[in-house]
Write a structure and sequence with these properties.
about 10% helix, disordered N terminus, about 110 residues
């Protein structure tokens, strides 16, 4: 049963994407602390000097580049759990997410 779960996890498609991200604490955005390395429907792999521990709950915001005709970026705001930690990198799940546009992004 464990092998099947592992194989299913490895079948999740991911995309290599390098975008800035910021950690959120108490609803307040911190300055960007690193960048994404890849993104899938299961989670995100980050590079950062920020130390995280496996099991830590995490709220983060990924900044997408401006869309053609847009005046501001779009943000992917996520809530998850840190599932893997290495020196200067960590991975977290995506338990809940929402896309957030800056006010007047297309004005």
């Amino acid at each position: 049963y464990e092998i099947v779960m592992w194989l299913e996890f490895r079948r999740v498609l991911f995309r290599s994407l390098r975008m800035p991200f910021a950690l959120m604490t108490d609803g307040e955005t911190l300055t960007p602390v690193g960048e994404t390395r890849n993104l899938s429907s299961a989670g995100v792999y980050f590079t950062s000097n920020r130390q995280m521990s496996v099991g830590d709950p995490i709220e983060y915001s990924i900044t997408f580049p401006k869309a053609p005709g847009a005046k501001a970026e779009t943000f992917l705001r996520c809530v998850g759990v840190v599932v893997r930690q290495h020196s200067k990198s960590f991975a977290a799940t995506i338990e809940r997410y929402e896309f957030v546009r800056a006010p007047n992004a297309f004005a």
